[in-house]
């Protein structure tokens, strides 16, 4: 076990774990919002901290060369330990969410494993406003609008859904506005969800 009564050990642990933890946290906010247990993710924290260290060390060296007789100020250390990993985590999360690297690899005929574990996370994590038809297990159907006021759970054990606006059906399958009322649907009731462009509702109501 590390000797945490030793100041050097504390600094080393801090340097090897915290940057990777911060990077992982902010990257996760662009994906599922979930993180592994810290005990399971410790190795990835070390790896990310090592990569970040390779970027940060030249910056630290440059700061020390500028003022060799003056210690690096605390605020600069805080930027290096927290702000830098935050920016890197956001950047990695954004790149993963937009699938920029995946698209590039696909262009060269490489098909990597997707970073998102489920179709639910992939669809709802990056979805713009949509009209939806939700079919329940008893074959009941609801038509609705999913926008910023809707909510799709990111918890893999509770995939419930809140639709901010429910529509009625016309005789010719039109989307008929019936006022503002939403609907919560429990995860174990959902069978399928169909997605349609919002323009469908506007066209049908013209």
TrEMBL record:
Membrane-traversing stretches: 12-30, 42-62, 74-95
InterPro entries named among the record's database cross-references: DUF6338
Protein name: DUF6338 family protein
Keywords annotated in UniProt: Membrane, Transmembrane, Transmembrane helix
Organism: Celeribacter halophilus
């Amino acid at each position: 076990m590390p000797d945490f009564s030793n100041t050097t050990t504390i600094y080393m642990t801090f340097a090897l774990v915290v940057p990777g933890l911060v990077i992982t946290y902010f990257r996760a906010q662009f994906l599922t919002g979930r993180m592994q247990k810290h005990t399971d993710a410790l190795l990835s924290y070390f790896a990310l901290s090592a990569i970040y260290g390779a970027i940060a060390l030249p910056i630290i060296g440059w700061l020390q060369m500028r003022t060799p007789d003056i210690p690096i100020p605390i605020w600069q250390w805080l930027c290096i330990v927290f702000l830098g990993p935050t920016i890197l985590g956001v950047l990695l999360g954004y790149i993963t969410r937009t699938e920029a690297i995946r698209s590039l690899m696909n262009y060269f005929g490489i098909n990597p494993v997707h970073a998102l574990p489920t179709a639910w996370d992939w669809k709802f994590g990056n979805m713009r406003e949509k009209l939806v038809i939700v079919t329940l297990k008893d074959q009941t159907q609801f038509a609705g609008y999913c926008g910023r006021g809707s909510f799709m759970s990111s918890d893999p054990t509770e995939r419930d859904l809140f639709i901010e606006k429910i529509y009625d059906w016309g005789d010719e399958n039109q989307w008929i506005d019936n006022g503002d009322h939403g609907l919560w649907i429990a995860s174990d009731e959902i069978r399928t969800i169909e997605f349609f462009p919002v323009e469908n509702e506007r066209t049908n109501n013209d």
